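Open question from group meeting: does this chain pack into something compact, or does most of it stay loose? Before anyone orders reagents, we agreed to write out a predicted structure and look at it together. Recording both the input and the output here so the notebook holds the full record.
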Amino acid sequence: MGMRGAARLVRGGLGIVVAVAAVVVCAPAYAQFGSSLFGSAPAQQFAPSTGPSAIPSGSGGSSVVAPAGRPPQMAPSAQAVQQQIPSSQVSLALSARFGRDLGPITSGLMWRVYPAKPDASRAYKPIKEDRSPNPVFILPAGNYVVHVSFGLASAAKAVSLRTETVREVFDLAAGGIRLEGRVADVRIAAGQISFDIYRGSQFDTGDRQPLITGMGSGEVAVLPEGTYYIVSNYGDSNAVVRSDIRVQAGKLTDVSVSHRAAAITLKLAAKDGGDALANTEWTVLTPGGDVVKESIGAFPKVILAEGEYRAIARNEGRTYERNFKVTTGVDGEIEVLAR
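Structure tokens returned:
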């Protein structure tokens, strides 16, 4: 299932300034994140494509992918830190930013502190955890490893605590993308479309596992800065779009994936406008004979990419068929006559 179990998409109010992109084609933990988490990003827009590619051209767009995890052991409050610290203890103050010249990350972080050496079972187990943007840990003097994650971006540092407060700043070059789907000017309902995200370009060779699968419309994924490609699945047949995107550190980009497709309802009737015959087996084929969709029922609904098809209906041992054409955005009913 990709990263869906290890990192779930969250819905939330980021209230941020974002950029818009358009794609035009032929963790179980949920969290809320604060405002101004990202800045605006240059728009990414994609021209129509009849194949697996989409070419960027240019237009401006909140929730993030957050790691699943146990409830954190919270770091002490600022007031507690100000109290006298035992001589054997040292304070460790942590913060994160998008980059040396970029702003701080104000929410969505997960901090873990590990001992520098494994325990008796040779395992490294966190001794402290926190989800606040600027935690302060009070720890015995010694050596530790600090790990921080922000969506699918992460970093780790070895720290040595002696007598004075140690302050560490982590750079996490990460950005966000929020996805939705459209047919013409109509937004596709959230339950009808899902997205898979892969690292690199769609033109890269080799087999790759998705970083995220089944991402929903309106959700936002936080990813390390870089190039990714999206596979957008409208329905469960052949309305699929693939497009490259660019994630920039500290930026959130809205991606609107436009499908050339329509929702078609199939019906087998004894006469024009007659009642649908129940228990009908359906097969939808391309002109070349490739099976696109199989289903059973009186009124099966299938979402198909724009193009020409043949519907074959089987009922009570007899077979009927009809050729039909799908036009983008023109939903409708295809009636096959049982005669």
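Observations to bring back to the group:
The chain has three domains: 17-61+175-258, 78-171, 262-337.
Residues 262-337 form a domain with the Immunoglobulin-like fold (CATH 2.60.40.10).
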